[in-house]
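Researcher: We are triaging several targets before committing to wet-lab work. For this one, the compound of interest is flavin-adenine dinucleotide. I'm pasting the protein sequence and the ligand SMILES. What I need is the predicted three-dimensional arrangement of the protein with the ligand bound, expressed as structure tokens, so it can go straight into our comparison scripts without reformatting.
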Amino acid sequence: MPSDRSPASSSPLHCDLLVIGSGAGGLSAAVTAARLGLSVVVAEKQARLGGTTAWSGGWMWIPRNPLAVEAGIQEPLEEPLGYLRHELGERFDEARARAYLENGPRMIEFFRTRTALRFIDGNAIPDFHGRSPHAREGGRSVCAAPFDGRRLGARMADLEPPLPETTLWGMGIASGAELRHYINALRSPASFAYVARRVLALARDRLLHGRSMRLVNGNALAGALLASAAEAGVDLRTRSPASRLLTREGAEGVGVSGAVLETPQGPLEVHARHGVLLACGGFPHDPERKKALLPHDPTGQCHWSAAARGNTGDGLRLGEAAGAPVSHDLVQAAALAPVSRVPRTDGSLCHFPHLIDRAKPGLIAVRSDGLRFVNEAESYHDFMQALLRATPAGETAQAWLVCDHAFIRRYGLGAAKPAPFSLRPWLRNGYLRRGRSLAQLAAACGIDAAALERTVARYNAQAQGGRDEDFAKGETPYNRMQGDAAYARERGWPNPCMAPLQRGPFYAVQVVPGSLGTFAGLRTDAHARVLDAQGVPIAGLYASGADQSSVMGGNYPSGGITLGPAMTFGFIAAHHAAGMSPSL
Ligand SMILES: Cc1cc2nc3c(=O)[nH]c(=O)nc-3n(C[C@H](O)[C@H](O)[C@H](O)COP(=O)(O)OP(=O)(O)OC[C@H]3O[C@@H](n4cnc5c(N)ncnc54)[C@H](O)[C@@H]3O)c2cc1C
């Protein structure tokens, strides 16, 4: 381990806990530690706080959470533990899994009673793999409740706004009932009235505050955590990347005692009496680590993660310099997702993750051979794994999401929004391809036309009967929840995820390998302490969020399995640093 090197320029700062990174993994620990009485500094590399968390859906997989229990959903710990044991197979680490499942409900109770963060339940949200033993159809997740940005006051300017492509004129749309109102706005007077109210509120917010003040999803999570951190007296520093860790000899040998931050005023040493927590969001934009850990990205340039751009693997390198290895034996090193590349007017590309549209009735995914390769309604991670399996060696992994005119006007496609928004800009910039017939669309995309026509004819016949004989689409509770049961019923389609692609013009968008973040990280124990190559905790060093090797071992059993552990292990680490045990 390198020793404490030359002092930084300004006089050092002292605190109890130094948190590096301001997403869920960092702020959960910071808020908890401050509420437990520690003095806390948060160092954030970017100009704004919140990281990928502020762009996310805000869902957390927390089985046996208090909101589910209050709704009468009770299950013993052995149930979700059994689900994880089955899903994780050889990567199941019982000590960490138990720590996560035991402390998740405590974390929710702590935040909802002692901070500004509130939750809404996910009691109708099924696990991804409904056929696995101990899977549940709901009651295992929570999401951050909408948060009023005005509570942040001037701090609102420090919060990373949501990804523009996922908003309506900068206003986030909450998943679930709210999203349904937006989809149905042109067909249901109640939905129209709902959307009209929201748009009026947005106009007022923009006039008074310059942006939407109604924060939802991950932006509400990051906003509420930021407000809670500020209220608890956390010292929040933006534009202050940590560049190296400081170490000292202690009773337990050499341990981590702080870090150097590269602040706008120059390097700053921060000495942390109780430890340092790494929460820099993993390596989604670190070409070298991607080359090493993502087999589909041998150049480090063909994985288009939707995660925040500041997440360049700093935490992992800091950990390695302190003697901690990065896990390289996970089932998948990243939380995979199909993304489309959205050209922006400033010349940059948004990596848009397709999380919702794939399961709606009337969309198929094909490769350039014109053949389907997957149940499109499966999770983003499973979709991508199927694409990687279907792609012959030496070929670039890519696919097309194909739909007809009725579909795109009802649901939109990727970043292209539904009616009444115009499709013209998306056709002009090449994001969307269009053809009057399937053959024309195939020509526009470089897909085998005859094969595509045969695929669609077969799919349409199956959609009329409601049964996907090739990939069993719509057969799990998760598939069906992601579909559109009410609309399918209305149109006489027996399967909520399947509708015939009938009338042109037809549309397609290309999807390529991407991710919501990364899974491989620093190995930790059940207290979130970082382990060295011998499996011994490095004194004073913790990791949470994507810097911590995923407790799921590179599997993706349910939505919310990155934010759930990020929040929970942040909470656990803070208690350990404070010398306390979490309790209900
Ligand atoms: C569109 C989208 C939707 C998603 N929805 C969900 C969901 O609903 N549920 C779920 O579980 N997961 C979801 N995810 C994944 C989830 O958002 C991430 O896994 C999670 O936010 C990671 O949290 P984190 O704290 O590790 O990292 P982040 O939230 O990314 O925060 C890391 C922070 O560290 C900062 N940083 C980096 N290097 C340094 C340095 N050297 N010094 C100081 N700071 C540094 C970064 O700038 C960043 O602000 C979603 C992801 C995306 C893209």
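Researcher: Any quick observations?
Model: Residues 55 and 162 are 5 Å apart (CA to CA).
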